[in-house]
Amino acid sequence: MSEIKIAVIGLGYVGLPLARLFSTKYKTVGFDMNVKRCEALMAGHDATFEVSDELLQDAINNHSFKCTANIEDIRECNFYVVAVPTPVDADNHPDLKPLWRASETIGRVISKGDIVVYESTVYPGVTEEECLPVVEQVSGLKFNVDFFAGYSPERINPGDKEHTVEKIKKVTSGSTPEIANIVDGVYNSVLVNGTHKAPSIKIAEASKIIENSQRDVNIAFMNELAKIFNAMGIDTQDVIDAAATKWNFIKLKPGLVGGHCISVDPYYLIQKAQVYGVLPRIMSASRRLNDGMGAYVANQTIKYMNKKGVMVKDAKILILGITFKENCPDIRNTKIVDIYNTFEEYSNNITIYDPWAHATAVKNEYGIDIVSELPTEKFDAVILGVAHKQFLKLDIKGFVKDGGVVYDVKGVLPREIVDGRL
Question: Which end of the chain is less packed: N or C, by CB atoms within 10 Å?
Fold first, then answer.
């Protein structure tokens, strides 16, 4: 292959860090249909905080990287990487429209000999059965004759400043052995810990989806234990600490399962398994259990309020955090919204404070107003939903009325100040 010129389609939590990393070795163009997003990035700031302003500005100033919403800017590239979302619809069925649109975009610019690599999380078969036929149809080129493909599943962990993209060991694959070597070589050239070359695209696709499905099942088990032990009046974390003294016990914690990966990806495999006549009972049950934990937290808080004689109707509730995880502005599929919605059945006096979340994004996505300043009044109940570093420094008890309730979703507050926790 001649000199590699890379285009990354989709500049979100996955695409931008990857594009910036590629730009350390290759001429790289990041393409996104969101014009304002591209303009902000070219001005040197990433609102997701996945790439520091310094790294982003260095890449742009070195002329090795640019962001654009103009499709003509990626026409001269020859190595296309797709990093668009793979959501589910209202019925939790896979929504492949972003992938189809990205494939159409590539079909309009791809040339003979080019390679397209998909990173979006999918069930086995999507790349070859759903995406590449679109590229063929739009481009008029034939797959594995005129152009080639690979799959390298993303492993970005939003907000994680330790396992950054260059340190992640990546799975790679290609549509032919020769292309698999080229794809593997490109990724290997920018990664600190190298790659694992899978035997086929489908195996690479499957490897990613079971990573998140496994975590979903494991967390569901811990959430089920939390429900059991809470009903018994036993502290779940004390039980886990005791069990963890055995050498082969895997220490995990219960919690809310939101975000774009663990709470979404298993549905892709569940759906595909049913096509083959397999009913994935454990995965399906895990999804149902984890999806119900936000309402469970709210109802547990209400139980403690009733026990302490706090009137639930029209109660003043403070929820600390709305992002799906700590120290990150990502609000995708956050289960804090389920806590809010459950309390909204009893009271309109609900305040959400989150210094990381963008208020406009929350309003657009969920129709919920959040406050940008730390409240000064006192509340009937305070729920620590997200363990942002700012919250760990707060005097949480100072926000609670005498006789009020503190519920700790994350299990990080001093035990003496909390009434309940997962």
Answer: N
